[in-house]
Amino acid sequence: MDSSSFPIDFVVTTTCILLLFYFLRQLKAFKHRSHKLINTPPEAGGAWPIIGHLHKLHGPKLPHIVLSEMADKYGPIYTIRLGLHEYIVVSNCELIKDLFTTHDKAVSSRPKMIAAQHLGYDNAMFAFAPYGTFWRAMRKIVSLELLCSRRLELLKHVHVYETKTSIQELHKLWRERNISHELDKVKVNMSQCFSNLTLNVTLQMIAGKRYIGTMMEGREKDEEKRCQRIFREFFCLTGINMVSDAIPWFRWLDLGGYEKAMKKTGKEMDDLVEEWLQEHLHRRSCGESKEDKNSDQDFMDVMISTLENENGDMGGFDANTINKATCLNMIIGGTDTTSTILTWTLSLLMNNPHKLRKAKEEIDVEVGMKRQVEESDIPKLVYLQATIKETLRLYSPGPLGGIRELSQDLKIGGYHVPKGTRLITHIWKLQRDPKVWSDPSEFRPERFLTTQKEIDVRGQHFELIPFGVGRRICPGINLGMQIIHFVIATFLQGFEISTLNNEPVDMSEISGLSNTKALPLELLITPRLPPNLYE
């Protein structure tokens, strides 16, 4: 046989095999449904053979917009098919309440994903882990040891220090530019500023490290660049929708080279966190680290102490792997989402100047201009709190929530949903439901001071669930909200801000690990407090 014909023959053969598998699967599904006479949610139109609706979620529109348009056509619960897997997409408050109360245990598992294998220590990272004994043990450790009120109080000084340091650095930048160029205003990339701030906070709380924006020369500067690059790649790859997850037959092709990149980044990330862990273990063996869990230990130290005394099912993972996976999980959950929310909050305020004035006036009245904002001031800043709630309603960090996999057959909204079906909680659509929210696309913080004053974001009100709901709700809500309120209040108090040429902020989004602003938020800043308060 002519070797030049091999690629064509191979493609034809592979295509035939894939089509055979597809039609066999469809025949099996048809027989199953006919036999059971089940009433399943309506399936959205436009599916292609083999790939299903996968092509619709790969642009040009963002996935949550595409699924929103499908909901307008097919209703608040419908089915889509992504490769070999069926998903139900749910965007109705009552249906979501039923799912995450009556059926919460049945919808608390996760499907196996390639990113979880290479970047999540083969599901040792509890955010990716399926529901079971190991996940429950890890969730208990995280909730009771790492993110409990006592621990957050002990480590509160970290985000306070980092926030005030960030304000000082911005003032120093303004002062230096003002002296050299006689500028009244200085341009600042606030997206990068918030990203550096939140990463420093999480690294300090978790591993006692502070890399970003502090090291200027030599090996330390190289280490800073290395850390930034690895985390940037990690966040990017974790948010990629892999074709191979939808159609495992294609995995060997590694379309886009993403799996190769995940393996490389996973190795680099493990090397970095392994260095941190060995430093902690060395200090502990030398008696240099704090072993009292009531002290302000970082999370890695707490995990070492906790895992030494843990006798439960650890999923077959060793203590060091669990420690590294859990600490990385906390960095992922605490960095990207927090900086994204901060950026969206400030962007919305810039596009609504009268709302910005109200937020500043409240800070001036409750705090004044003779001292900086303190943590104790936040409960008094009710308009600021309402502003952040409204930001979370419009720009939830995860517009489609985390994918779940049903562990048993369910009856939802009168429909039968079989075991193994995957669940997408369409948070973006839910939080813009006109039956619940008047003028749902408008930025109106006042709604949380009047008609919807009692609604909170901590999973008790099913019409507003930016951090998820049920057993797998984000365990770091309290820490995240604490940081967001304090950073925004401190920045608004510290600076007069405006956009370049007084133009509106572009609110375009890109999909990824979190719902990120497409373009960096660049603002002009001018100090508004006495100089001594920036020292």
Could you provide a short overview of the structure?
With 535 residues, this protein is an alpha+beta fold.
Describe this structure in words.
With 535 residues, the protein is α+β, with helices and mostly antiparallel strands. It has 3 domains: 1-37; 39-111 and 400-431, Uridine Diphospho-n-acetylenolpyruvylglucosamine Reductase, domain 2 (2-Layer Sandwich); 119-397 and 432-534, Cytochrome P450 (Cytochrome p450, Orthogonal Bundle), CATH 1.10.630.10. It is 50% helix and 8% strand. The chain contains 17 helices and 11 strands. The protein has helices spanning 6-36, 63-74, 93-101, 114-118, 133-146, 149-154, 156-181, 190-207, 218-238, 243-246, 258-285, 299-308, 319-350, 353-366, 382-394, 427-430, 477-494, and strands spanning 77-82, 85-90, 186-189, 404-405, 410-412, 415-417, 422-425, 495-499, 509-510, 516-517, 522-527. Strands 1-2-7-4 form a 4-stranded mixed β-sheet, covered by helices on one side. It has a 3-stranded antiparallel β-sheet with strand order 3-11-8. Strands 5-6 form a two-stranded antiparallel ribbon. A hairpin with a 5-residue loop joins β9 and β10 (516-517). α7 (156-181) packs antiparallel against α8 (190-207) and α11 crosses α13. The longest helix is centred in the middle third of the chain and has 32 residues, at 319-350. The protein is globular. The protein starts with 5 loop residues before the first helix and ends in an 8-residue tail after the last strand.
